[in-house]
Amino acid sequence: MISENGTARQWTIKADVASATPQLNNYDLNLWYSTATNYEEPGQSAANTIWGTGNRGTQLLNKLATKPITLNAGNRAAQMETLDNGPLGNIFGAPISSSSIFTGFFNPDNIDPANPEAAIEFGTPFTGRPEKLQFKYNFQPGAVNKDKQGNVLSYGDACDIYAILEVRKDGVVKRLATAWFRGEDLQNQLVVKEVIFTYGPLDSSFPAYMKPKNNLYVDASEAAFILPTHITFVASSSFAGAQFAGAIGSKLVVDDVKMIYD
């Protein structure tokens, strides 16, 4: 190729075929690697994973709330349990550890025991437009749901399992689609759950917790066709765990996180 100024340069062009129906890497949660401090995290290795947990923060309190479990031969899943942090946790204003697994990165340089999400950078690159989020789960809510101050709440604990599609550009994050399940009922058996993705803004019929904190959505004129740049998937054993509210003993198992396309 010769440019306008006469400079010649040879280019090698390689074409990659992108899947129109991508899945999350390690969506079946079968791969877990051992960390330097001798516990397991989801993924092939620390350098090759899209998954994170809060274990790097809770281990400071000698707690590991997210662990792999073996369901049957060759099939593993993520087990999350809301734990009592004991006297040391109370010193830091963190009476419980709500367990979670998410797509993203846990940055140990930003650990703040009083703010469990401060060290989490949510999301991973993704360019699909799924119709539904599908996963397997079971959930056992703890007996007594309490707030951060230890007051017994009038409602029970619930698990949160959700996925959001985003368009990230020039430092601005806009919501494209939302699929959210909050379940409070006892579910002893592992069952398949499907949640529909809602594309575009969420109207007043949707609860506030499902809406983006920055209240920014992809323009309605683009929501019907634009591709996302990122996906955030989160599963947590206590829906208000980030505020240190939850029921000790709430236990959630999640497996086979799939995107369902038309």
Commentary on this structure:
The chain has one domain (32-260): Jelly Rolls (Sandwich), CATH 2.60.120. Strands 3, 8, 9, 10, 13, 14, 16 and 17 form an eight-stranded antiparallel sheet that branches. It has a five-stranded antiparallel sheet with strand order 4-5-19-11-15, with no helix packed on it. The chain has a two-stranded antiparallel ribbon with strand order 1-2. The termini are far apart. A hairpin with a 5-residue loop joins strand 1 (32-34) and strand 2 (40-42). 33% of the residues are buried. It has 262 residues and is mainly β. The protein is built from three helices and 19 strands.
Name a few traits of the molecule.
Jelly Rolls, eight-stranded antiparallel β-sheet, five-stranded antiparallel β-sheet
Structural class label = mainly beta
In CATH, what is the class?
Mainly Beta
Tell me, what's the shape?
globular
What percentage of the residues does DSSP assign to strands (E)? 35-45%
User: How many domains, as an integer?
Assistant: 1
The rounded Rg comes to 20 Å
* Average pLDDT reading: 88
Order of helices and strands, N to C?
Answer: EEEHEEEHEEEEEEEEEEHEEE
N- and C-termini, Cα separation? 42 Å
The major pleated sheet works out as:
8 strands, antiparallel
Q: What is the CATH topology assignment?
A: Jelly Rolls
* Low-confidence regions: 1-5, 11-17
What's the CATH H-level superfamily name?
Answer: BT2081, beta-jelly-roll domain
Number of helices: 3
Helix/strand layout:
Blueprint: E1 32-34, E2 40-42, E3 51-53, H1 55-58, E4 66-72, E5 75-81, E6 83-84, H2 86-91, E7 96-97, E8 100-106, E9 120-122, E10 124-125, E11 132-140, E12 145-146, E13 159-169, E14 172-183, E15 187-196, E16 198-199, H3 220-223, E17 230-236, E18 246-247, E19 251-260
Antiparallel strand pairs: 1-2, 3-8, 4-5, 5-19, 6-7, 8-9, 8-17, 10-17, 11-15, 11-19, 12-18, 13-14, 13-17, 14-16
